[in-house]
Amino acid sequence: LLNASLLLLSLSASWLCLWAASHSSPVYALASVWLFSHLGNTPFALMHEAVHGVGSTSRRGNEMLGIVAGWAFPTSFSMQRLAHVGHHQRNRTDQELYDYYLPSQSRRVRNIWLYAGNLLGLYWWSVVLGNLVYLLAPWAYRSRYFVDRLAPALGFGPYVADLVKLPVLRVWCEIALAFGYQALLFYWLDLNALWTLACYAAFALHWSVLQYADHAWSARSVRDGAWNLKVLAPFRWVALNYHFHLAHHQHPKVPWYNLPKLVDPAALQPSFWRVYFSLWKGVRPAPPMGSPADLAFLFPSTDVPADGAANQ
Fold this sequence. Notes:
Layout: H1 2-23, H2 26-39, H3 41-51, H4 59-71, H5 77-90, E1 100-101, H6 107-119, H7 122-136, H8 138-141, H9 144-154, H10 157-163, H11 168-188, H12 193-213, H13 233-238, H14 245-250, H15 272-279, E2 284-285, H16 295-298
Helix pairs in contact: 1-2, 1-12, 2-12, 3-4, 3-5, 4-11, 5-10, 6-7, 7-11, 7-12, 9-10
């Protein structure tokens, strides 16, 4: 009931932002774009709960929560679930490492992935455009060229290789419902195309950064390779404690409202902005798997926190 209510509330708030951005003065429109960029994290976080099976007490309710929450992204819940399970299996391994580059990899290409994908928002756009390809031509998405050449070149090779194994009709229907929801909103709210694009571009920037700021420079560990980021409480609440990402990776079946209990207040919590600005320095040579967090890079040499220092 709590999660369903939050989903309805967050969707309604996003409708208001889209409408205000399209029909208000430029000042209010810009404020609506900024607010939309944050509110979009709530349905995504609820879909994330459903991915782990803790969005509802019933299996059917969990599926419905995930599917409807996916409309706001827009994406297929089935695809997101499989991709996120893969993330928990590959986290900080050579297959999912965007802040470092391996000896066999081009530093320039990896920087393009980091800057364009995570810092400039193209990560979100690539997911949505990939879904559009699946909607219009599922055979093209599932082709050997897309799976073996294009997806690896964009950094999504292992994920797409998994996604093409999903039932085609189910995925297609979920994507069709998601894009249908977006089209209905555009018509129903009489939205302005340019301001609507601005809203989603702002969300793309925020979402794409957050997806890696909570991992960058952390320990090369599948389970412990994440951060409990320090952010202002209202922004963490809107994202349903998504910033407590280390706690989530260590306890993926714990619902969002119980994550704060698992965060040690005396442990290191780098701020979101510290990690964000450090990413603009570019990728670094990858340390071996099992290496600890790269605190010497994340913090200036005179400011490296001692073990147990919090809230840096």
